[in-house]
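WARN retry 2 of 3 for item q-0093 after timeout on previous attempt; input resubmitted unchanged.
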Amino acid sequence: MKAKAIVYCEKEFGKMDGKTANGLVRHSEKYEIACVIDSTKAGMDAGEYLDGVKNGIPIFHDFDDAVERLKEIPNYFIYGVAPLDAFLKEEQRKILLEAMEKGMNIVNGLHEFFTDDEEFTQKAEECGVKIYDVRKPLAKKELHIFSGRILKVNIPIVAVLGTDSAVGKRTTSIILVEALRKVGLNVAFVATGQTGLIQGAKYGVAVDAIVEEFMTGEIENAVMKAYDTEHPDIIIVEGQGAISHPAYLSPCAIVRGAKPKAIIVQHSPKRKNLGDFPYIPMPTLKSEIEMIEIFSRSEVIAITINHEDMTDEEIKEVITEYEKMFQLLTTDVLKYGCEKLVKGIFKAFPELPKNSD
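OK item q-0093 returned
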């Protein structure tokens, strides 16, 4: 049974910095989302706001509004904002303290670790609740360096990379995993960021919080755990950032540690500049594909679209344009599902078992 949770996402739900809340509203294996807190969208249905389909998750104005209107106070308060600076303001600290006073455990995906904060730890002890810092890495003595074990894996590993951060790589990965399972494959998913882990991914690591020397080894270790435990037909690995992005090392570590045999690239055609770095233009899809294939020594087998700021007609036009330009299967999984991707994966890996049904 899933634990109930409130997701805090003030002023950011549906935006880039609200990606943790966005992801939890779309999919969560671990939590039943009771509501989202965002005063700018109060009164709306979270699913309808995100994807045009109601899912029964209300958006409330603030924490007091949520406590008053919910039938019972959930056991968990998830901090669902993921800003670049990743540090709390005083108002946000007060809300977290109030949640603890209401008996709620705190789930934190920021780089600012609440378990290192004396005020938070004292309040948690006083209230008998726990704080979970999802991004907090293990002690260095418990981390892994690259071992080369990944080189012996004899099944397909597919990474979903992209042209920027918060472009939809995790969402596409999760929808693809479900689509492959529906056609009878045993699929393992490896999360590489805080949102995937909060959603309940069985395997993974928040790679961007790890010291550089251990990044590749930790990715390799997560993939190997999935491989050794699940004996899967295929492994899907969530990407982070972009290979070309000047601010992030994590996508390079993912490629080096997971050694994907094929890659899907997620792109936002209408995004002009990098999301958290508006002074840097987005890479072209062509340049990113070329860089990925050179760096990974693997083949890009498909393109997936983030349809932000696009009309349905524009999405169709871009899909047609990209398929003609790149000679690659192209789709928008939120609009059209994963049928194309599934066919592309079976074409790339004909050794995968076929469902006899």
